[in-house]
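Person: Please comment on this record:
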Amino acid sequence: MADAPYQPLAARMRPQRLEDYVGQQHVLAPGKPLREAIDAGHLHSMIMWGPPGVGKTTLARLMAGASDARFIAISAVLSGVKEIRASIEEAQLHKQMGEKTVLFVDEVHRFNKSQQDAFLPYVEDGTVIFIGATTENPSFELNNALLSRARVYVLRSLEEDDLLHLLQQALGDVKRGLGQQNVTAPDESLRQIARSADGDARRALNILEIAADLAEHGEINEAVVRESLLGNARRFDKQGEYFYDQISALHKSVRGSNVDGALYWLARMLDGGCDPLYVARRVVRMASEDIGNADPRALQLCLNAWDVQERLGSPEGELAIAQAVAYLAAAPKSNAVYVAWNTIRKRIEETGSLEVPLHLRNAPTKLMKEQGYGTEYHYAHDFPEAYVAGESYLPEALADVRFYEPVPRGLEIKIGDKLNYLRDKDAASDWQRIPRKRGR
């Protein structure tokens, strides 16, 4: 008799009953709307949004079984219009026979707009109960038309105790699969695997299977687990939801002057495989946006860290980036330049191409001088303190606008004092090219 085809442990451990499903009690506990719909046999179209390895496909299969519905699964990675059409035709045939069909679409966010729209009429007329699974934020990745016809359920990473329970169950399957009745793993080794799996059941079971293969004399100890974890990075979906969430957490920790939080999220990103040079670029942005002239040294320190990463690579460069991040978080904060810059850009959009005042124009030719270019321009270095009190440097329509308002923190205290001193000189001057008013 031929041997049965190999199946990964994660596939062999898929539960066959809803009662055996682990996790997601926030939507599946008795009394929760989804659980009540399943128990009543009134399954509805939905989007399951959650990280990898939390059981989206398994849950969809179990819900279909509990609702006495046929189950068709397609993957948006591998399927196109042909597979969509074939699935719908199959569902229509069985609808005529009085049978319900659950159409499960894995990675549904990978379908384009027209492919997503193809499901709409068949969801509306009940040909299929549509269940889409995605690791990406549906608000950004799915059409509003599809979202309006499906309820969104957020699935969470599995807790460590949930993963430990799965691993304890799977240990018996490992023994049978390897033909080794003496495979052992103390709970502490299983818990080590659970922690390293980062909420992902599939990853936890894969690590256990690798560990069982590596274990001498059938003992999965701490050393075996460590060897099994080589190259096993924590979750960091580049360009996906977790990517932007962790960058956001890093930036907001810096802005909030929380050094521990900033260093933690930096470490999470680098541990998950984020390019350190990408982080270095973002850190430079933080220096200008949130620290600004309150501490101009921050920008140079961040540029130095970027340079160290490019010159030395990791891990030396990562430590330099961490140093810069800690400095940014502890530094005085000012977004005055950031606000001024955005305000000016918006004002330019509103006012268009205002003329450069004549006295500020360059006059390299005789004709330009005859036209008044550069007339009455005052060379600042010829005046006390190299400042021409009452002079204007903005277009006439914006002469009364003040864009940059230093904050009373760090070096910007002194910058603010200097600007106020110069503005007082303007007010006290014998002449002003254009009347000026304080404020925006």
